[in-house]
Amino acid sequence: QLPTGLYKKVLVILHDSVLPYMNEPTLMMDFLTVAYGIGGAISLLALNGLFILIHQHNLEYPDFYKKLYSLLDPSIYHVKYRARFFHLTDLFLSSSHLPAYLVAAFIKRLARLALTAPPEALLMIIPFICNLFRRHPACRLLVHRPGGPADMSEDPYVMEEEEPSQSRALESSLWEIQSLQNHYHPDVAKAAAVLNQSLSEMEDDISGLLELSAYELFDKEVKKKAVDVPLEFEQVRGLFGKKNDIFAEHFSLD
C-alpha cells in the first residue's frame, strides 16, 4: 500500500520515464493492475502504463473495459487528468472489432453524464461521441431509432449497471444529446445539432479540444466583435413609465 500522493507521482511519469528503460516492463503488470483497481484519479493515471503493456507486451486484462466503463462518473469532466483519460479512451475504443453493445454503453454513459458537464467538456465530448458513431455504424440506432424518445415511456438504459452488456444501452435512444441542443451556450447547442444530420465519413479531430478550458471559452467570447442591434423604445413619461400616470402630476424625473 502506497500513499495516494506517491501513487500519483509515480503513475504520472511511469509510462514515459520508467517503462521504456526497463529490460522487462512486464514486471510492472501487477503494480499497474492493482493501481487500476483503486479507482478515481489513480485509475485514470494507471491507464497510460496499462496501454503500453496491453499494446506492446500482450498483457491480458479480461475485465479491462468493464473497469474503464466504471471510471465514467460525473467527476470525469472536471478532473485535472481529463485530457489524458479521454485521449486513451479514444484509443481503446478505436478498434472496429469491439461489440456494438459495449460501444453503445459507453456512448449512453458519456451522454448521460454530459447533462451536468461544463461547456468546455461538452465541446469535446460531443465530437467524441460522433467519432464513435462513425467507427461503429451499428450504434447509430441510438440516434435514428424510429420515433426516438417520443415512443418510450421511460429510458430502458440502466445507468447503475456496472456490466456494460447488461446496461440495455442498445435498446435506448440518445435523448441526452437532443436535450443539449437547447443548451444555454450557443457553441454547445450548435455542436449537438450535428447529430440531426447525416455524419460525414471523416472523423473529427478532438486533440485540440481535450484541454479546452473555461478561461479559453470566456476569452473567445470577450474577443468577439459586438454587433450593434437597433432598438426601438418609447421614451419614459411619468415616474413609472405610463402616459397618464397619477404620479406624473405630483413628481418629476428632472
Description of the molecule:
The chain is mainly alpha-helical and 254 residues long. It has one domain. It contains eleven helices and no strands. Helix 1 packs parallel to helix 3 and helix 7 packs parallel to helix 10. The longest helix is centred in the first third of the chain and has 17 residues. The model has no long low-confidence stretch (mean pLDDT 83).
| Coarse morphology | elongated
Please give the radius of gyration in angstroms.
Answer: 25 Å
| Gap between N and C termini | 76 Å
Work out the helix count: 11
Give unreliable regions as ranges: none
Structural class: mainly alpha
Q: How large is the share of residues in beta strands?
A: under 5%
Oligomeric nature of the chains: single chain
| Count of distinct strands | 0
Summarize model confidence as the mean pLDDT: 83
Number of domains: 1
SSE map:
Elements (H helix, E strand, L loop, with lengths): L3 H15 L10 H8 L3 H17 L7 H7 L11 H11 L7 H15 L4 H17 L5 H4 L30 H6 L5 H7 L21 H9 L32
Helix pairs in contact: 1-3, 2-3, 3-5, 6-7, 7-10
